[in-house]
Fold this sequence. Notes:
Distance between the termini: 69 Å
Radius of gyration: 21 Å
Shape: elongated
Amino acid sequence: MDLNVDVIDNDTGEIYREGVLLANAHIFISQEKGKIIKDEVEILEGSSNTFLKLDREIVRNLYVEFPRERRKRDLAAEAQVRARKFWQYENGGGQVNKL
């Protein structure tokens, strides 16, 4: 049973969903038009929430590529390049001069 699934952005490592069911993870990925890049299973020893009972917990990590998020990052990078070019930071532009 996959009761503990994490949905992780493959590019940034940002966790979008944590501890959800596998079906819920797939629904979220399809709604966001994501593509699963990597599916890994991690076994954590002694991570149970019960007192004095050391169980092992199985976590399934789905690394996903989200086109919308990638486009946002690309647009932000382009805006930063345009701002740097406008203010001419390399030539000392954008400085505040004190009188």
